[in-house]
Design a protein that fits this description.
alpha/beta; 20 strands; Ribosomal protein uS12 methylthiotransferase RimO; aspartic acid methylthiotransferase activity; five-stranded parallel β-sheet; five-stranded mixed β-barrel; pyruvate-formate lyase- activating enzyme; OB fold (Dihydrolipoamide Acetyltransferase, E2P)
């Protein structure tokens, strides 16, 4: 690479949807001949892709912008917090440009102004699937932008707009390129995966000589033809999700659903303006498991939402106890600037929120430990993420990267395992988060 090549530093914050935005910007930068560098000192300009969903994410984004300004001096800001430019300018008036999420054109224009490109088509080669920020063997596949719901605690629609689905053939072609480039696991992400295609009236498109609807089930069937793991995130429990469970039982899609239930009290869910037939949730979970016993359900919950009574919280604990969800995250409610929930009466005192959060997580830790213990003695199909000393660090079908547990393969290095390898692991032990196992004969270990 020529020493005169313009150099861009990049900081990516936030959720997997934001990470996909970062990958698209990085790909365009690379196509135009920019070198992506890993340090502030080496960069001619720095792009910071921000998050702005909750207060802690806003603080992290503002800190990252400040650090980039202090270390480099030339900073371009994009992402969700970019929808609040006055907040960024107040804290950091020296930034060169501010744009919102998915506004790739504005980011590129700002980079061009600060650092004109010097493209050399003989040197600047980019894979046809673009540049990725994940390891080579897995990738996030974003199928839509925005959301049509107006949950009272959420400001995502004000940042990313209403639902805009990508045509199914476009998504399938991208997935095909990723798998051809070495991806073994596709993680489907959006704000509302279950609503995929509703804005396009489930328009039909051609791919591989067949007609496919821009619809969740058809997308899953198409992805199943690629031979990679397909993992579904951000799934609302609409009735048509039932159609996906048989695909999981048949091995076409990973038996894994990431469903943000958020609460179990009908009264609180109404205050949250959450969609779905919440009164029948337990029944549906039981029906899903009857069809696909291996189904893993991950979810997130909010405790201490405005108006949450002791009884509402007890209803939530009872749901968790009965549902036996496999993976659960929770956080205490905190006001988000611009959210409708801020106007709700009867806020829960902070000490009560924290006490409820601790009780919730203690119960879920017990459930998780018990469910993982049941897997001891079974054989689990796993995907290796890394090799660390003697261990191979892998994930089972029940584990999404970075948010779920791990499978520590004790003889992974001796077995010659490498990142991206699939292997069958006999589970020898567990704790409340992870599994421990061997690929070789336990009697030889």
């Amino acid at each position: 690479m020529s020493a005169s090549q313009p150099k861009v530093g990049f900081v990516s914050l936030g959720c997997p949807k934001a990470l996909v935005d970062s990958e698209r910007i990085l790909t365009q930068l690379r196509v135009e001949g920019y070198e992506i560098v890993p340090s502030y000192d080496a960069a001619d300009v720095v792009v910071v892709n921000t998050c702005g969903f909750i207060d802690s994410a806003v603080a992290e984004s503002l800190d990252a912008i400040g650090e980039a300004l202090a270390e480099n001096g030339k900073v371009i800001v994009t992402g969700c917090l970019g929808k609040r430019p006055e907040q960024i300018r107040e804290a950091h008036p020296g930034v060169l440009s501010i744009s919102g999420p998915q506004d790739y054109a504005s980011v590129m224009s700002a980079v061009h102004e600060a650092l004109p490109p010097k493209h050399d088509p003989f040197l600047d080669l980019v894979p046809d699937y673009g540049l990725k920020l994940t390891p080579k063997h897995y990738a996030y596949l974003k199928i839509s932008e925005g959301c049509n719901h107006r949950c009272s605690f959420c400001i995502i629609p004000s940042m990313r707009g209403d639902l805009v689905s990508r045509p199914v053939d476009e998504v399938l072609r991208e997935a095909e390129k990723l798998v051809r480039g070495g991806v073994r696991e596709l993680l489907v992400v959006s704000q509302d995966t279950s609503a995929y295609g509703v804005d396009l009236k489930y328009a039909e498109r051609e791919w591989r000589g067949k007609t496919w609807q821009t619809r969740m089930k058809a997308l899953c069937e198409g992805l199943s033809e690629l031979g990679a793991w397909t993992r579904l995130h951000y799934v609302y429990p609409y009735p048509h999700v039932d159609e996906i469970i048989p695909l999981m039982a048949e091995g076409k899609v990973l038996p894994y659903l990431d469903i943000p239930f958020q609460h179990a009290s009908p009264r609180i869910l109404k205050l949250m303006k959450r969609p779905g037939a919440v009164d029948k949730t337990l029944e549906r979970i039981q029906r899903w498991r009857a069809i696909c016993p291996e189904l893993t359900i991950r979810s997130t919950f909010i405790v201490g939402f405005p108006g949450e009574t002791d009884q509402d919280f007890e209803d939530l604990l009872a749901f968790i106890d009965q549902a036996e969800l496999d993976r659960v995250g929770a956080f205490a409610y905190s006001p988000v600037e611009g959210a409708a929930a801020n106007a709700l009466p009867d806020p829960v005192p902070e000490e009560v929120k924290q006490e409820r959060l601790a009780r919730f997580m203690e119960l879920q830790a017990q459930i998780s430990a018990e469910k993982l213990e049941r897997k001891v003695g079974t054989v689990q199909r796993c995907l290796v993420d890394a090799v660390d000393g003697d261990l191979a660090i892998a994930r089972s079908m029940a584990d999404a990267p970075e948010i779920d547990g791990l499978v520590q393969i004790q003889d992974g290095a001796a077995a010659g395992l490498k990142p991206g390898d699939f292997c069958d692991v006999r589970i020898m032990g567990s704790d409340e988060h992870d599994l421990f196992g061997l690929v070789g004969d336990p009697d030889d270990f």
